[in-house]
Structure formats: C-alpha cells, structure tokens
C-alpha cells in the first residue's frame, strides 16, 4: 500500500482532541505532507492548518483526502458522506483507518471508478503475502517492542528515525499500524494479517537494503499481553532485528484493559524479547529503553531512568520529555560506516 501524498486532513465534527490522533500524528511527524484541514460545522478540534475545501486542496496539489479521526465502532457516519464524495469528485483519493471499509460502500466504489481515484482501507489492505522464511536480509534493523500496549512504540520509532537522520544515518520508519501507514504513506497493518503470515508481512515491510541502511520498524502489542502477543512474536521473527528498543510506562500497575493481569517486569520482558528475536537473528541486542515518565516529577523520572541505564548498560530516556538522542548515538556507533 502506497498512499499518494500530500494530504487534505478531514477532522469531521469531533470534539475530543484524542479522537483526531491520526490527523494529529500525520501533522506532527510529516507536516510537509499536509496541505490543509477540513472540518464540519460542529468540529471543536483544529491543527491550525488552512481550512480548505476538497476542490481548493486539489488545486494546491493535494492527492489524498484522509479521514483523520476515529470514533466508537470505527464506522463512517452518514453525515460525512458529502465531504467524502466531494473529495472524490475533486479528484482526490480517499484513505481511511476505520474498521468500516470504504470499498464496502457501493456509492463510493462507483464514484471512485468514475473519477479514476483510489479508495485506501488502511486497516484492511495488504499485499499478497508468504509465510516467513527466516532467510537473512541485508541492511540494518531496529524494532520497538513493549512491556504492554500503548507504551509509545510508534512515537518512539518516529522520534528515533528523526534523531538518526540528524546524525546523517540512512534511516527509514517502517509502519505496521494504520496511523503509522498514513504518516509514512506506506506499510502494512499487521493486526489485520492472518496469523500464519505475520512474520512474512514483517519481512515484506522491511526488505533487503543497502548495508548501511537502517529500517526503524514500528512494533505492536507485547509478548506479555494475553490478547496481542501473537502479533508481537510474528514481528520479532519477521523483522530479524539487529537491535531492540524496549518501550515502557513508568508505574503502570497492570496490563492495559486487563486489571487482573499484572504488568511484567522490564528485565523479564527484555529477556524474552531478545530470546525470541534470536530465533531469526542470533545477534539481536538491546539498544535502549524508551520510558513514558509523564506521571512522575522530573527528578523522580531521571532517577528511574538512571537506574535502568546502569542496570542494562544501554541508554534509558523519555522520548517526549528528554528525547532519543542518546539511543540514536548508541545505534550510530554500531552503524556500518558509508564508504
């Protein structure tokens, strides 16, 4: 899946800023891909981009109209349809990360065909896949993993890519979730892949590359989450990571959405992730720990990070609060120097 850029970001009529996290993520990480935003009358959220109609956005070079918000149930409300059809008739492709498929709406399929544009169901579309092979690939890879879901794996991956580029490393974010795909413009939604093919999907998303090229692969789930461990394991095997960055939230009391399931200790999680990664890359190592410390005072957070650094002998930092320069520099020291 390769989604034409730049985008017009559709914010609908949401009132909760968190509901616009897809649009916000695109704007935060790829502002150069955002021509403007479009919202309906009751919308209370803005990214402070120019308000444009689909026709105006197309005239300014936009290629795709992105449904940049999420709602309960992941469906497309009927009152959004005029904005979507206006975008199609203006010559824009449509991209959605919602559960309901654009391609399941006959009106949109017929209109898109008439105007020769594409409908991208980011959560559902994927290439023809093979099972994982475990065959060694060229290039260098770092995969973000986690003690739990929602501990910052996508944010850490994007922030790490940015810091590595500052060090003149040839780094590329590889998206495995719908928001990441819209940010990158390409990728594969591994949570929608049949389990037998997850490792193959990870091989597909991070193919052979130049020896000094770094793929920064967006992780999903956690090996210790009873609901999502399968996706995490498939990514570990298919990514063949040279390095892992462990993501964690300081003080989280239990596994997300499972109050009866205690959160795993960081040490145990690192150990199992390295053991699993070494099935396809015997040389996999830990490069750093990215911790969400936002619920703690700075002094307490810094003490916690210092203790992790000392214990594991790798940089531990908060990607939002303190940045990922230390982990990027660690990886740079282990990068293959360009000739």
TrEMBL record:
| Protein's name in the database | N-acetyltransferase DgcN
Q: Which domain of life is it from?
A: Bacteria
User: By which gene is this protein encoded?
Assistant: dgcN
Tell me where in this chain the D-glutamate N-acetyltransferase-like C-terminal domain is found.
132-327
Describe the location of the D-glutamate N-acetyltransferase-like N-terminal domain by residue ranges: 42-124
- Lineage per the UniProt record: Bacteria, Pseudomonadati, Pseudomonadota, Gammaproteobacteria, Alteromonadales
Give the species. Psychromonas aquatilis
InterPro entries, alphabetically? DgcN-like (IPR011669), DgcN-like_C (IPR035086), DgcN-like_N (IPR035402), P-loop_NTPase (IPR027417)
């Amino acid at each position: 899946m390769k989604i034409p850029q730049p985008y017009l970001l559709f914010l609908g009529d949401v009132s909760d800023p968190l509901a616009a996290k897809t649009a916000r993520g695109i704007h935060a990480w790829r502002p150069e891909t955002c021509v403007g935003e479009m919202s309906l009358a009751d919308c209370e959220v803005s990214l402070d981009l120019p308000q444009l109609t689909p026709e105006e956005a197309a005239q300014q070079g936009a290629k795709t109209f992105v449904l940049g918000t999420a709602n309960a149930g992941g469906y497309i409300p009927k009152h959004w349809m005029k904005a979507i059809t206006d975008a199609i008739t203006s010559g824009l492709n449509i991209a959605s990360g919602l559960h309901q498929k654009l391609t399941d709406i006959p009106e949109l399929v017929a209109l898109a065909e008439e105007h020769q544009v594409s409908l991208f169901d980011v959560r559902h579309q994927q290439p023809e896949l093979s099972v994982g092979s475990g065959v060694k690939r060229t290039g260098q890879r770092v995969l973000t993993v986690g003690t739990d879901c929602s501990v910052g794996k996508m944010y850490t991956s994007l922030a790490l890519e940015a810091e590595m580029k500052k060090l003149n490393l040839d780094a590329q974010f590889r998206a495995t979730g719908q928001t990441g795909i819209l940010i990158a413009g390409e990728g594969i939604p591994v949570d929608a892949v049949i389990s037998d093919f997850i490792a193959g999907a990870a091989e597909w998303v991070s193919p052979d590359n130049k020896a000094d090229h770094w793929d920064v692969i967006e992780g999903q789930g956690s090996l210790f989450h009873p609901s999502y461990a399968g996706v995490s394991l498939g990514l570990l095997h298919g990514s063949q990571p040279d390095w892992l960055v462990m993501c964690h939230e300081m003080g989280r009391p239990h596994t997300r959405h499972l109050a009866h399931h205690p959160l795993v200790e960081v040490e145990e999680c690192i150990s199992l992730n390295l053991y699993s990664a070494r099935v396809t890359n015997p040389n996999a190592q830990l490069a750093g720990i990215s911790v969400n410390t936002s619920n703690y005072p700075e002094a307490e957070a810094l003490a916690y990070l210092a203790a992790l650094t000392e214990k594991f002998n790798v940089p531990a930092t908060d990607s939002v609060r303190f940045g990922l320069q230390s982990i990027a520099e660690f990886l740079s020291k282990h990068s293959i120097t360009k000739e």
